[in-house]
Amino acid sequence: MRRLAALALLASTVATAAFAARPVAFSAEAPSSGVLVLPLGSAEELATRGTMLDAASREAVSRALTAANFRYRASNTLSLRGIGPWSQILVVGTAGDAPQDVRLQNVGGTAARETAREDGPVAIAAGGYADNADALVQIGVGARLGGYSFDRYRSENPDRPRSAGQDAPITIVSPLAQQAQSQWRSQGEALSEGVYFARDLITEPANVLSPEAFVTRTREAFRGVSGVTIEALDVPQMQRLGMNAILSVGMGSERPPRMLIVEYRGRGAEGQPIVLAGKGITFDSGGISIKPASNMWRMKGDMAGAAAVVGTVLSLARSGAPVHVVAVAALSDNMPGGGAARPGDVVAAYGGRTIERLNTDAEGRIVLADAVSYADRRFRPAAIVDVATLTGAIVTALGSDYAGLFSRHDALASQLLDAGESSGELLWRMPLNERYASAMESPIADIRDISENAPGAGAGAHFIGSFISPATPWAHLDIAGTSWRTDNQPTVPSGAAGTTVRLLDRFVRDFRPVPTAG
Ligand code: BES
Ligand code: ZN
Ligand code: MN
């Protein structure tokens, strides 16, 4: 008990970031020791890429690659020691037809992951591989993301060192270093920070991350960033506005819910904002419809949608993007305390539509009903995209490589699909049949939360969409399967993926207005 209290105290006093991120730098000159990372798509490329090596070393690398029968497929690696002045030469395969940014990020991520325990400097030989500043920045983003770790609650232990190379800088070596360095500060660093923000909050245990703590962490992250206004509606304010849906979800917990609104208007950005609404359940026990024990701990990450939308606005604002965007995070615990909602309860959402709650574990759509109807009315947005770890059904259907995309607005859907493709955060479009509406009719209220007569993920999507005017372009992303990974990817270490920040950052920057009629 005392240990727990001490832990909570510790958590509330240490700085925002779990640790200082591994430094990423750009330089026209390679360090002459440490690790050299060599991206190669074929044996022939060694001639042009290996200019940082003397002739003898290059020949030694060439022979080692042949002897190992190295396959140049993306993210394959070969580690060579004892060549030239380098402690290690790490060859990273780059062949394959992934989109350009994905390929570049994967090189950086692989370099960071495979050298995580190196104490010395790491140099990525990017000359001849990445031929413009933007490409170099993407390698840097990959390196930051691949090198992520969350060490906040681990004590020093010599037998199990924290990431030893965490302080060792990764230098991306290219003649375009100077240009890349300034672009890195304005864009690459901001995007990495948006993803880190999401990962940190998802990983943070629920005893630390209450709805109020989420708000505090958001305010800290945006400190000093211009063009941003942050509001957090508390319980009395939500009562006055008639947000009885999120209030009903929050009633089972000692820790009150919040509706967090982060608006960013970039210089030169005109017109209506894009609204990004996120499900922010700080712990989903299921409530009175309680979940089974196995893996319930993962529900500390049931606020991944909220983390993604706030992380996206953080990235856009920190980089000064000329866009107008609003993140609305519906933050609440879902607990079975004495005041908790009961199955069968009827509540009125913002705007007055009534909901019959048959299963208190379908809480995400309930809190989002208030978030999207409020945002639709208040901001008259050019589009609303909601992001939620909404259903187990989407995990069954799509696993962890695709998030589910639901929309009745084809022009919006196709922009999201494109952003998914180019960011490497893939979406798969799912249907929204007209019939889901009748499947979700309630005998005593305007709508019910679940139905046996509509597929699980589609029913949830339909429910949320029904709280938005049909004229407002709207899409729903179900990220229940993509938000947490159990394997390692080049830019996503296992655990909290911080998914959808890269996708939404791309989407908002590239957004072209779509017709405002369903
Ligand atoms: N947060 C869960 C969905 C979830 C499941 C997220 C697995 C991540 C991994 C959500 O609130 C939930 O409990 N959904 C229910 C809905 C059902 C009661 C209609 C589900 O999917 O079982
Ligand atoms: Zn949930
Ligand atoms: Mn639930």
Describe the structure.
The protein is α/β, with parallel strands linked by helices. It is built from 16 helices and 19 strands. The strands form 4 sheets. It has an 8-stranded mixed β-sheet, with helices on both faces. It starts with a helix and ends in an 8-residue tail after the last helix. Mean pLDDT is 94; it is low at 1-6 and 8-18. Manganese (II) ion is lined by residues 284, 286, 361, 363.
Number of strands: 19
Residue windows where pLDDT falls under 50 for at least 5 positions: 1-6, 8-18
- In this structure, how is the largest beta sheet organized? 8 strands, mixed
Based on secondary structure, the structural category is alpha/beta
Please state roughly what percent of the residues sit in beta strands, choosing from under 5%, 5-15%, 15-25%, 25-35%, 35-45% or over 45%.
15-25%
Shape: elongated
The spatial strand order of the largest sheet comes to 7-8-10-9-13-17-14-15
Q: Rounded to an integer, what's the Rg over CA atoms?
A: 24 Å
